[in-house]
Each structure stands twice: as structure tokens, then as C-alpha cells.
Amino acid sequence: MFLRHEDIFCACIASVICMEQTLAQTKHTAIHRVIGTMIGGMVGYVFLELCYITPYYEWARVLALPVCILLVVYLCNIINRKASVSIGCVVVIVILSRSADNVGSTFTYVVQRVCDTLIGITVAMIINKLNFRKIFNIKNNNNLNSSGD
């Protein structure tokens, strides 16, 4: 089922992280965010599966989280995608911290979280594609608030 509270949360976080000033910048950022999302999803899946087979599931997740974050940072650096680190870490944090004992299939849960993040990236692209300056007749003035207020 789509658009539950958790789905909206993940999509909103991804949208905010992906939003840039121009559409071209957003597209560039979106590529990095998709890569980070996939890396974070894969790392989260593997470690969540490992946590499920331990007798101390909750403690295993707590201990796995910093390891997963370090692994995401390491993997993104290896493939020279430093801009992918932030969203990859967010995906891992969401997967490991918000999963419940009864998520059913770990794979389905992780795929849903990755899809939620990809939806958020798509929303950021759509919002950025809309030309709000033209819609609201705003002149391109970088110094809109010159009085310092």
C-alpha cells in the first residue's frame, strides 16, 4: 500500500535533499541521489537480513547502523560519488531505524523505502521544472532583500 505516513516521510526527505536552484542542477543532483539510494538500499537490506538472524535483533540494528553508515560512505567514495553519501546514509538510517519486527518480507520493505526515496527525487525534479518565477511574475533579482531584514 502506498502513501502511508512512512512513505510520505521518506519521499519528503528525498525531495528536500535533492532540490537545487535550477533544473540542470537538480538533474545532476538527482543522478547522485539515485546512486546513493541504491547503495543505501543494498547495504540496508544486507544488514537488516543479518540482524534478523541474530537472537538480539534490536541490539543488532543499533550496532549495525554506524557500520552501515561507514560502509555507505566508503562505497560512495570508492566509486567517486561523494555527492551520493547523504541520501545513501538517510536510506540506511530509515531502513534500519524504522523497520519493525513484523515487516513481512525484508526485500519488500527495502524496495518500498527505495521507491519512496525515488518518488521524492522525482517530485523534486517536477517542482524544479515548474518555473515559479514566471508563474508568479518574479523578476530575477538576487538581491531581493537588500535591507538585511
Explain how this protein is built.
The structure is a single chain. The termini are far apart. With 149 residues, the chain is mostly helical. The chain is elongated and about 60 Å long. Helix 1 packs across helix 5, helix 2 packs antiparallel against helix 3 and helix 2 packs antiparallel against helix 5. The protein is 72% helix and 0% strand. It has one domain. The protein is built from six helices and no strands.
The separation of the N and C termini measures 46 Å
The pLDDT mean sits at: 80
Structural domain tally: 1
- Series of H and E elements: HHHHHH
**Tally the helices: what do you get?**
6
Number of strand elements: 0
Output the structural class: mainly alpha
Low-confidence sequence ranges: none
Rg, alpha carbons: 18 Å
In helices, the fraction of residues equals over 70%
Largest sheet properties: none
Task: Please describe the structure with a list of short key phrases separated by commas or semicolons.
149 residues, mainly alpha, 6 helices, 72% helix, elongated
What's the quick description here?
By secondary structure, the protein is mostly helical. It has helices at 5-18, 23-52, 57-78, 85-98, 106-129, 132-135. The protein is built from 6 helices and no strands.
